[in-house]
């Protein structure tokens, strides 16, 4: 077959042309419930009028300004992201992998150490350092020597972590719920152990909230529901509600390690991205909005438990995974035929990532389709 595009994605033959809220339509006019949301990106659903308005408003004023100049919108967005947390500063980039790249560089620069502990089945991105941080061999395959000194430990294994974390360790890096790796939440015991080890040994803690952050788990950040108190946090996916933006947040203590000229990006945090992300944050960081995400999470878990009593459902907030007895690709295909878009996670998990604005009726409809396939 001749094609102009690289073949690096296994694309499904669905050509979506329109979206509204949780619903999308393909070329032929077929309607689907979108429980992929661009992989946890469309936090406020498709074509949300608030975001459409924000985008139009900013596009009439100013699209791009170099980071050589003042940027009050970036300052405001950083302040909103760290407000009422122990974090103090933010840096903006364009994606999750870039946010992690910044996090890894900052941790190395600040500590002068190079060893980093990450976990098997983690996913941190596709650039060299973020790929090297990722504890999955298939992500490294074929690219030659990776960035040095990442050690991959089994997730939720306190003894393995105690044995590996030492004075040479710059940072421990984890996802609160491993998203791509199978919807595996950190246990309370492991989160406590990580924090204790970091405090004891002066190791920095990097929490990758690229998928779990920005209200996806029912709190602003997923670490808020654990004993983890990260020094550095990476964000992307849901932050722009569909407009590309990433961010790295860190504590006051790390401020001086990213001085002028140490790190940067041309596009990062441009006025379009920051204005739209600010609109997302102003909406989803509202207490009532967060409480509603949690209520819908509980509802979805209850309905799934009723419909599929024999299957394990894991996750937090509206990042849920069903352990599938059928091959995941088959479940995804069958759901697609019935008008429900899903994405896999790991080898055996079907992942549900509806927009945070999903309704109970839409959850019911999705659960009914899942019951037909898996029940
Ligand atoms: C998606 C993801 C990334 C990579 O983000 P990109 O924007 O695709 O670079 C990193 N970490 C986690 C946890 C992710 O889910």
From TrEMBL:
Pyridoxal 5'-phosphate binds at residues 96-97, 123, 208-211, 266. InterPro entries: AcOrn/SuccOrn_fam, Aminotrans_3, Aminotrans_3_PPA_site, Class-III_PLP-dep_AT, PyrdxlP-dep_Trfase, PyrdxlP-dep_Trfase_major, PyrdxlP-dep_Trfase_small. Pathway: Amino-acid biosynthesis; L-arginine biosynthesis; N(2)-acetyl-L-ornithine from L-glutamate: step 4/4. GO terms for biological process: L-arginine biosynthetic process. N(2)-acetyl-L-ornithine binds at residues 126, 265. One of its GO terms (cellular component) is cytoplasm. Gene3D superfamilies: Aspartate Aminotransferase, domain 1, Type I PLP-dependent aspartate aminotransferase-like (Major domain). Its cofactor is pyridoxal 5'-phosphate. Keywords: Amino-acid biosynthesis, Aminotransferase, Arginine biosynthesis, Cytoplasm, Pyridoxal phosphate, Transferase. The modification N6-(pyridoxal phosphate)lysine is found at residue 237. PROSITE patterns: AA_TRANSFER_CLASS_3 (PS00600). GO terms for molecular function: identical protein binding; N2-acetyl-L-ornithine:2-oxoglutarate 5-aminotransferase activity; pyridoxal phosphate binding. It comes from the Bacteria. It is an enzyme of class 2 (transferase). It holds the Pfam family Aminotran_3. Its EC number is 2.6.1.11. It is found in: Cytoplasm. Signal peptide: none annotated. It catalyses: N(2)-acetyl-L-ornithine + 2-oxoglutarate = N-acetyl-L-glutamate 5-semialdehyde + L-glutamate. NCBIfam families: argD, PRK01278.1, PRK02936.1. Homodimer. May also have succinyldiaminopimelate aminotransferase activity, thus carrying out the corresponding step in lysine biosynthesis. Belongs to the class-III pyridoxal-phosphate-dependent aminotransferase family. ArgD subfamily. This is Acetylornithine aminotransferase. The gene is argD.
């Amino acid at each position: 077959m001749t094609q102009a595009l690289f073949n690096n994605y296994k694309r499904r033959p669905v050509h979506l042309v329109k979206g509204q809220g949780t619903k999308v339509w393909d070329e032929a006019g077929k309607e689907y419930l979108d429980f992929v949301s661009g992989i946890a990106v469309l936090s406020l659903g498709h074509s949300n009028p608030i975001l459409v308005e924000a985008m139009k408003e900013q596009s009439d004023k100013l699209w791009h300004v170099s980071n050589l100049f003042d940027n009050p919108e970036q300052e405001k967005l950083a302040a909103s992201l760290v407000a009422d947390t122990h974090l103090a500063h933010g840096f903006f980039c364009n994606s999750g992998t870039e946010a992690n790249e910044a996090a890894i560089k900052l941790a190395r620069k600040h500590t002068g150490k190079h060893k980093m502990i990450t976990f098997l089945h983690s996913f941190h991105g596709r650039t060299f350092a973020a790929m090297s941080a990722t504890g999955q061999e298939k992500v490294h395959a074929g690219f030659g020597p990776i960035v040095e000194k990442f050690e991959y430990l089994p997730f939720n294994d306190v003894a393995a972590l105690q044995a590996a974390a030492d004075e040479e360790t710059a940072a421990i890096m984890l996802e609160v719920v491993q998203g791509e790796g199978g919807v595996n939440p950190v246990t309370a015991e492991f989160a406590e152990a990580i924090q204790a080890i970091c405090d004891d040994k002066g190791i920095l803690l990097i929490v990758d909230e690229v998928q779990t952050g920005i209200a996806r788990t029912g709190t602003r950040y997923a670490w808020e529901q654990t004993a983890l108190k990260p020094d550095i946090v990476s964000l992307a996916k849901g932050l722009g509600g569909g407009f590309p933006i990433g961010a790295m947040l860190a504590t006051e203590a790390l401020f001086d390690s990213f001085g002028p000229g140490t790190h940067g990006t041309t596009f990062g945090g441009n006025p379009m991205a920051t204005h739209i992300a600010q609109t997302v944050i102003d909406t989803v960081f509202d207490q009532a909005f967060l409480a509603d995400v949690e209520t819908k999470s509980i509802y979805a878990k209850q309905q799934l438990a009723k419909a599929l009593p024999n299957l394990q459902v894991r996750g937090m907030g509206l990042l849920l995974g069903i352990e599938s007895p059928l091959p995941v690709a088959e479940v995804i295909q069958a759901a697609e035929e019935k008008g429900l878009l899903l994405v896999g996670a790991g080898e055996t998990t079907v992942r549900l990532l509806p927009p945070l604005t999903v309704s109970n009726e839409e959850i019911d409809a999705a659960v009914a389709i899942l019951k037909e396939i898996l029940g």
